[in-house]
Every structure is written in C-alpha cells, then in structure tokens.
Amino acid sequence: WDLSEDFTVAASNVITTLAFGKEYEKSSAELQRLHGCLNEIVSLWGSPWISALDSFPLLRKLPNPPFSRLLKEVARRDDIIRTHLDEYKMQAPSKTSEEAIAITSALLNGLGKPQDTTQGVVLTDTHVHMATVDLLIGGTETTAAWLSWTVAFLLH
C-alpha cells in the first residue's frame, strides 16, 4: 500500500490552505489537477534529458520530448496558479475570513508598495505568482517526502 500519493495530496491541500485560505476535498477535481501537474513537473525535472540542459544549454535547440512536456506542464501550472490568484483577487476577502489570513492576502496587500526604500524594489504580480509556485512545489514535495521517509523509518 503506497502512502506517498496520500501524503502528496494531503501536503498539497495544506499548502493551498495556507496560500489561498481554501481547503479542498481529497477527491476534488481542482486539487487532483494541481497535484497531477506538480507530480508531472517533478518527475520530468528528474529526467536525465532535462538535467543535461543545465550543462549544455545549446541542447535546447534540438528536439527534446521531455523538455517540451516540461514546458507544457509549466504553462499548465501557471494557468492553474493564475486562475487561483485571479479568483482570490476577485473575492477581496474580508479581514475576518480565513482567506484574509492566507499568505496570498499578505502578498497581494504588498503589491505596488516599495519593499526596499534604498533601491525602490516593488512587489509585482510575477513575484506573487512565483512565490505561490514556490510554496506549492517546495512545500508539497518536501513535506510528502518527509512523511514517507518518516513512516518508512518508523516501520523499519
């Protein structure tokens, strides 16, 4: 019985709750779509064909099916995240709602405001988008892997 799938879905759900203040059912189509996309990106990222591109960037000019699939999945991921962020912006959560304490709320409140007065750095939509992506991919995979290893260690 493989618990890694359950751990990944559970971790993904926790991260979406932190990011968007929105919890999904395990069988939710939206959560499954996000989970499937993230899994595909992580599995493609480990491909030797993708790793070779780091050492030899000129290989990007040659046909590379795993790289093409990775680009499609990244575009799909970006569409999913953009949809979530757009929905979140439209809802304009009240200060008492669960969504108002989400990380995305804090990030969106900082949009357009200078973050570093010495260099005039301004938080943009791209920053918010990529911070959300980092939360989802980094938080989901590391947490799920940690849970799997913990169970394996305890069983051993």
From TrEMBL:
GO terms for cellular component: endoplasmic reticulum membrane. InterPro entries: Cyt_P450, Cyt_P450_E_grp-I, Cyt_P450_sf. Its main location: endoplasmic reticulum. One of its GO terms (molecular function) is heme binding. It comes from the Eukaryota. Keywords: Heme, Iron, Lipid-binding, Membrane, Metal-binding, Monooxygenase, Oxidoreductase, Steroid-binding, Steroidogenesis. Belongs to the cytochrome P450 family. PANTHER family: STEROID 17-ALPHA-HYDROXYLASE/17,20 LYASE, STEROID 21-HYDROXYLASE ISOFORM X1. This is Steroid 21-hydroxylase. It comes from Oncorhynchus mykiss (Rainbow trout). The lineage of its organism: Eukaryota, Metazoa, Chordata, Craniata, Vertebrata.
